[in-house]
Structures are given as C-alpha cells and as structure tokens.
Design brief:
Blueprint lengths: L4 E5 L6 H12 L2 E4 H14 L13 H10 L2 E6 L4 E6 L2 E3 L6 H10 L3 H6 L1 H6 L6 E5 L2 H5 L5 E6 L2 H14 L6 H17 L12 E4 L5 H14 L2
Parallel strand pairs: 1-6, 1-7, 2-6, 7-8
Antiparallel strand pairs: 3-4, 4-5
The chain binds cytidine-5'-monophosphate.
Family: Belongs to the cytidylate kinase family. Type 1 subfamily.
Catalytic activity: dCMP + ATP = dCDP + ADP; CMP + ATP = CDP + ADP
Protein name: Cytidylate kinase
C-alpha cells in the first residue's frame, strides 16, 4: 500500500519543524526530520576527525560515505514526549545535534551525492508504514517526487536570523544578529548551490513565504493547501 506523503522543504528557520510537527499530530502521520540525518552524519564525521570547524578544508568523501554506511539509524516514536527519537547505533541522539555548529557540519557533508544516496532508502521506507510528513531540502524533489502535497516554506534571511536571536535570548543565551545572519546565509548558499539535490521548490510545490506570518498562520495556510490537494 502507498501512504500519503506531505513534503515541507525550505531553508532553516523558515518554520518547517513547527508546521511539520503540528500536521503529523493532527493527521496521525509519522514525522521525518531529514535534517536530523544529515546532522547526525555531520556530527559523527566531526567526531571522527573527518571535518573540522574550518569549512574551507577539503573533506574525504569516501571516508564520510563509509562512516555513513556504518551507522545504524532508527526513528522511534516516543510516546512520552510525543516526538520521534533518533537512535544511532543503539543510542538516542539528543539535542546535541540541534545547534548551528552541527548544522554547518551537516551542510558540508550533504553536498556528497553518495552520502545522500546512502540515506535515501531509510527515508523512503518511512512512507511504507503510515502517512508521513517529511521536512528537509529535497523531500519534494528527490526523496518523494510523487508526494501528495509539497510545500516550500521560505522567509528572508533577516527574518530567520531575527527568530533565531529571539530563541537564543529566550533561552538565556547570548545572540549576535550579524554573525547569525552571516552563518544562515553561508549555509543557504551551500545548500542552494550544490549540484546534487539542491534546496529548491519542486515544480508542483506551494511556495509560502513566512517572513510576515506567525506559526499559526503558516499552519492554517499549509492545512488549507493539504485540503485542496485532497
Ligand atoms: O533542516 P536542518 O537545518 O536540520 O538541516 C541541516 C542541514 O542538512 C541542511 O543545512 C542541509 O545541508 C542538510 N539537509 C539536506 N537535505 C535534507 C535535509 C537537510 O541536505 N533533506
């Protein structure tokens, strides 16, 4: 049987995670946070010494590929938190992948076609068990080209940097708008201009700019689009 798939693609900070989570809850679908896969590989590659904090250093693609293939990755729904835990080699990957440094590592290894290919079946298999809401960069273009619903959610880099600053400040952390903006632009640039599976809207995606919208408004528009698509 083929289950419905909803793809939410776009750059980081556009609000994909929130809308994906709400849709999955309301529809009773599974959630695929594909960025987490790239983040895990990025973090493991860093820990293995395959990438450094200097993004201009060349990376050994075949070594990253071997490392990717050696990871046993599983997505396990957590009924307590209501979220999906990612288990790598038997260990839960916590919030340690959710920071901009690891986001940068992720985008450095995400340029490698063979690494992406190694992660493909794992992602596609998630749609063989139940409905799926998938968020990432290439869900609608590469991983689920015949998905039922595709949305490309964007926002200006400034709006996204502003949100990030608010998040950090609310968490009691220091935040510098200019350096956050520069980091966002650097990652966007790498993700949008790589030759394999660049971040871009599928031809049949709804383009939604969340710069002037709050999370509720984004959710309502995406929900309406899902209803229109049947
Ligand atoms: O979405 P998130 O910020 O967690 O993604 C981290 C990085 O992983 C992105 O900047 C991108 O380089 C990569 N990625 C990707 N394809 C996806 C999801 C994420 O290349 N489907």
């Amino acid at each position: 049987a083929r289950y419905p798939v909803i793809c939410i693609d776009g750059p980081s900070g556009a609000g994909k995670g929130t809308v994906t989570w709400r849709l999955a809850q309301v529809l009773g679908y599974q959630l695929l946070d594909s960025g987490a896969l790239y983040r895990i590989v990025g973090l493991k590659a860093f820990e293995a010494g395959l990438i450094t904090t200097d993004a201009s250093q060349p990376i050994d693609e075949s070594a990253v590929l071997a490392l990717t293939k050696s990871l046993k990755i599983a997505f396990v729904p957590n009924n307590e938190s209501g979220r999906v835990d990612i288990i790598v080699n038997g260990q839960a990957v916590g919030d340690q992948v959710r920071n901009e440094t690891v986001g940068g590592y992720a985008s450095q290894i995400a340029v490698f076609p063979k690494v992406r290919e190694a992660l493909l079946t794992l992602q596609q298999d998630m749609a063989t068990r139940s409905g799926l809401v998938a968020d990432g960069r290439d869900m609608g273009t590469v991983v689920f080209p015949d998905a039922d619903v595709k949305v490309y959610l964007t926002a200006s880099a400034e709006a996204r940097a502003e949100r990030r600053v608010t998040q950090l400040v609310n968490a009691g952390q220091a935040a510098d708008f200019d350096s956050i903006l520069a980091t966002i632009k650097e990652r966007d640039d790498r993700d949008e201009n790589r030759s394999t599976a660049p971040s871009k809207p599928a031809a049949d995606a709804l383009l939604l700019d969340s710069s002037m919208l709050d999370a509720d408004a984004v959710y309502e528009q995406v929900k309406r689009h899902c209803q229109e698509q049947g």
